[in-house]
């Protein structure tokens, strides 16, 4: 089980990303527009730097919904390999059976 503080910190980051997503996207389009004047692009870059760092999408860590484990995460299932194995062996995930040959 992951530390509660790390899980909470990640949830806080998710909220900030949602809050600043539109503003961040608008500023990024201005900075990447080669036809825009240099002063406008520079001003947009400064405004982008003023936004909170945790509002950036890359700061969010994928974590297991069951245990909070940050590694060996399956995106499709939103859980780690260990949680997947435990739930699969106990028969709580339909369609997953232990393999043997």
Largest sheet: 2 strands, antiparallel
Gyration radius (Cα, Å) is: 20 Å
The number of helical runs is 3
**Neighbour order of strands in the largest sheet:** 1-2
Instruction: Give the count of structural domains.
Output: 2
- The CATH topology of the largest domain is given as Helix Hairpins
Oligomeric description of these chains: single chain
Tell me the structural class: mainly alpha
Low-confidence stretches: none
Number of strands: 2
InterPro entries: Ribosomal_uS14 (IPR001209), Ribosomal_uS14_bac/plastid (IPR023036), Ribosomal_uS14_CS (IPR018271)
GO molecular function: rRNA binding; structural constituent of ribosome
Subunit structure: Part of the 30S ribosomal subunit. Contacts proteins S3 and S10.
Family: Belongs to the universal ribosomal protein uS14 family.
Description of the structure:
- This protein is mainly α.
- The chain has helices at 4-32, 38-50, 81-89, and strands at residues 73-74, 79-80.
- The protein folds into 2 domains: 1-61, Helix Hairpins (Orthogonal Bundle), CATH 1.10.287.1480; 62-94, Ribosomal Protein S14/S29 (30s Ribosomal Protein S14, Chain N).
- It is built from 3 helices and 2 strands.
- A two-stranded antiparallel ribbon has the order 1-2.
- Strand 1 and strand 2 (79-80) form a beta hairpin.
- The chain is elongated and about 65 Å long.
- It comes from Aurantimonas aggregata.
- One of its GO terms (biological process) is translation.
- It holds the Pfam family Ribosomal_S14.
- Belongs to the universal ribosomal protein uS14 family.
